[in-house]
Amino acid sequence: MIPLAAGVILLAGFLLMASAPELLTSYGVKEMFRAWEPASREHLLGTNALGYDIFTELVYGTRETLFVGTVSSVLTLLLGTAIGTLAAYPGVLGRFFNGVMNVFVLLPRLVTLIVLASFLGTSDWNLIMLIGTFSWVGTARNVRAKVIHINEQPFIECCVIQGYSRGHIILHHILPNLYDVLISRFLLGVNSCIMMESTLSFLGLGDLYHPTWGTMINFAYKRGAFIRQAYNYLLVPGVCIMLLSLSFYFISIFFEMRTEAIQES
Amino acid sequence: MTPAQYETYRAALHLDESTGMQFLYYLRSLLDGTLGYSFKKDAVVSSLIWERLGYTLQITLPAVALSTLAGLAWGLRCGYRSGVPVDMASTVALIILNAVPTFLIGLLLMIFFCFQHRWFPYTGLSSPEATAGSAWLADRMRHLVLPVLTLTLASLPSRYLLMRNTAKKIAEEKYVLYARQRGLPDRTIRFSCLLKNIAPQFVTMTGMSVGSCIGGSLVVENLFSIKGMGKLLTEAVNTLDYPLMQGILFVTALIMALSIVVTDVICVLIDPKVRWGEYIEK
Questions:
Q1: B242 contacts in A (CB within 8 Å)?
Q2: Residues of B whose CB is below 8 A from A226
Q3: Integer Cα distance of B230 and A115 in angstroms
Q4: Of B115, B245, B257, the CB nearest to A115
């Protein structure tokens, strides 16, 4: 229960930041002050090279970070479930999708994403699409293993004998039984998608119109936060990424423990 | 750019031909080993990559070795005696480290070791004054410490967690209990019972970690301004040098594929079950 509580409290904090940023900060995103002011009561984390309040930027960046992470994770989940289920089919179709999975395992994800992001341009939807289409392999593998396991169960045999179509069996009998795999993969997927997005943004491939935490660190690094010793500008967004992904991890630990408890009983 | 130049580059990059033909040109460039021609840098892509690959490997290979070996040793120890305070503490610590992005680890190390204490240099791989011999080597080592440490810390948690969980499962087996009943020392049990049984997973993990470390080294090279392949990729991205980008993608995918093939072969060689299974089938 402790991991769940910790995860939910952390996540609730970030959701508050994402849904109601006005509550937490009284400044606007583009409100200018003197540049490079140190942390003070007026500016909790100081101001940046352009004179924007860093705390305000941080709070407003939460929504973008969470948005990119969750949407691309949902995409990953959909693709992974579809391909994993198809790959569990016997015959040519299954073998084909298995092959597709094996090709995607071999691709170095970060390098592929950097190259494709610079080919396609870096709007936030492009990033979401790219991260989604290159992160589903893990999900697909887990789903495939689980579907093969379920396929051997007597109740599926019953369905086959009773003459239900394959589509019906998959939609009504196999998919509902995948929920524990899907929940844990979704939560861990949000994690890895946020990591991926922040790494890309840190390397300067993020969407500049919708700055996330990774973009903030990129700006800080490029605009000389080191020389100004504005370490909080560099580190605090990173710490936020860490806390956010820990919160998802803790919640996923709870579900894992629950599944284990069900299996043991 | 004059219209004549524009036409020259258009023809040189085969942009007027069909996609299929362009792909054939790409395949030809793979076959003759040039990987295309970078007009921005005015050089053959493969030679550009070859120049930089060495620097990337100097960071990647030590990091792979250190993170997998440390993950193996510590994971075996904690998995064998799971539930004791040492195991709990190190598992929680590494779960937290797992959530830290690579660049944050790098930034923290940089701030602490370079800016607060000035123990290590923060940019490049060698200083201009050290030119040859042992001075050069020592200087290179000093430059390598932080990048390698960053990459090792970034990839250690996943290796440790995998090894610990595998070892924990095996430690519950009957033969481990029997070995303990016989009064064998913990060291012997760890290295002869556990290690042999998690060896296939360990080898596969090492192979996969080559790929993830090359990905991580892109970040590290940008952070520490090291002129390796990752820096080359960033330069290519910033100058929209498409042949170079494709070449780098191809080389990294090739390295990953090779490392996975090698690990598969090693897995077959070290696992008697697989080896004998093939004999029986024949």
A1: 119
A2: 110-111, 115
A3: 11
A4: B245
pLDDT tens digits for range B37-53: 888 888 888 888 998 88
Residue B24 has pLDDT above 70, yes or no: yes
B240: left (phi over 0), alpha (psi -120 to 50) or beta: left
Can you read off the two tokens belonging to residue B176? Answer: 């481990």
Q: The domain B20-281: what is its CATH number?
A: 1.10.3720.10
All structural domains of chain A, each given as residue ranges with its CATH number in brackets, are 2-264 (1.10.3720.10)
Q: Which of A108, A195, A239 sits opposite B252 (nearest CB)?
A: A108
Whole-number Å distance between alpha carbons of A177 and A80: 15
- Inter-chain CB proximity B260 and A242 less than 8 Å: no
Task: Report which of A200, A252, A215 is spatially closest to residue A62, judged by C-alpha positions.
Answer: A215
Q: How far apart are CA A213 and CA A215, in angstroms?
A: 5
The model carries a pTM of: 0.87
> Is B218–A195 a contact, with Cβ atoms under 8 angstroms apart?
no
Using the structure block, give the residue that is written with the tokens 């995103």. A29
Model pLDDT for residues B161-179, shown as the tens digit of each residue: 999 988 888 888 888 888 8
Yes or no, beta carbons of B107 and A198 under 8 Å apart: no
